Amino acid sequence: MITLAERQQIMSWIEEAHGAGARRSRACGVLGIALRTLQRWQQSGEVSEDGRRGRAVIPAHTLSDQERQAVLTVANSAEFAALSPSQIVPILAERGQYLASESTFYRILRDAKQLKHRQASHVASPCRKPKALKATAPHQLYIWDITYLPTSVKGVFLYLYLFMDVYSRKIVGWQVYERESSEWAADIVRDIVRREGIKRQQVTLHSDNGGPRKGATMLATLQTLGILPSFSRPAVSNDNPYSEALFKTLKYRPEYPARPFAELTQARRWVTGFVDWYNLEHRHSAIQFVTLNQRHTGQDRAILKQRKTVYEAAKKQRPERWRGETRNWEPVRVAHLNPDQKDKKLDRQALKKAA
């Protein structure tokens, strides 16, 4: 609501603008009021807080101060202090007592600033966004997860473990097992470290909060190998988006079996073919449409440089076909996981500068 002083100030501004040659209607529009409102203020002779008259109506069903206090007294009693209104009201009804509805209980407690954690147990700590991570080269940031593969036996699944290098998007390790296990996940990690020549404190491994991810064997193995663990928030799949995207790509491939897998060997054989295609043939849109292996081994820089040369030559040959610069074939320098707003802004600026 506009106060008396504010209305007087608005009227003086409008008259000042009108005296300088502006129309009152345009001046009112600039200040966000209607011309009819200004006319009403001027006709009244004085600017009142609110020209409307009426009587204050108190609803008949409004609780009195004594009734509200009775609700608070019951809610704060030793018997009910740790219970919510949805539990208090039914108990009172069993005893033949009705003070107010559940919604009224909640409203009164909220007005009294008592609608918070009412139990003696510890308040749940907030789940903060995981630390922002980034990779500027291979073998700096890995992610991993497990997905189900259906079998011909209803309700029985196989479990695909997949480890990805975030910088290149390359699958650096995988295996299919008959159950989820922290021990088997640790075996895959040890194999990756040995095969890729990973040094201590070189890699951060991000995953969600599932049992095998935070199992004692897995965490002990990471500590022994000098790998820093990182975890998503509970039930927040967006904290591990690369794994989710990879699993969708896997299960939407045209070659994905229409029928469930009959046995473990068949599943492993199919995943072997998928990983070969994904790493060696698939051209990923997020890394300028080079293959993951080319990105992982550093071949992408020469390939992208060649593409740039081809485009510049084409523009030079037929300049009338180009309105601006040629397509940006600069390699992607940084891969982010759960970036902060500052990181996103810097990425946009770098992309704009490169273009």
Outline the fold blueprint.
Elements: H1 4-19, H2 24-31, H3 35-43, H4 65-75, H5 85-94, H6 102-111, E1 133-135, E2 141-150, E3 157-165, E4 171-177, H7 182-196, E5 204-207, H8 211-214, H9 216-225, E6 228-231, H10 241-251, H11 264-280, E7 283-284, E8 290-291, H12 292-297, H13 300-317, E9 335-337, H14 341-354
Parallel strand pairs: 2-5, 5-6
Antiparallel strand pairs: 1-9, 2-3, 3-4, 7-8
What are the main properties of this structure?
355 residues, alpha/beta, Nucleotidyltransferase, domain 5, 3 domains, 5-stranded mixed β-sheet, two-stranded antiparallel ribbon
3D structure, described in words:
Residues 315-330, 339-355 have a biased composition (Basic and acidic residues). This is Integrase. It holds the Pfam family HTH_32. It comes from Candidatus Methylobacter favarea. The chain has helices at 4-19, 24-31, 35-43, 65-75, 85-94, 102-111, 182-196, 211-214, 216-225, 241-251, 264-280, 292-297, 300-317, 341-354, and strands spanning 133-135, 141-150, 157-165, 171-177, 204-207, 228-231, 283-284, 290-291, 335-337. It has 3 domains: 4-43; 65-111; 130-355, Ribonuclease H-like superfamily/Ribonuclease H (Nucleotidyltransferase, domain 5, 2-Layer Sandwich), CATH 3.30.420.10. The chain has a 5-stranded mixed sheet, sandwiched between helices. The chain starts with a helix and ends with a helix. By secondary structure, it is α/β, with parallel strands linked by helices. α5 (85-94) packs across α6 and α7 (182-196) runs parallel beside α9.
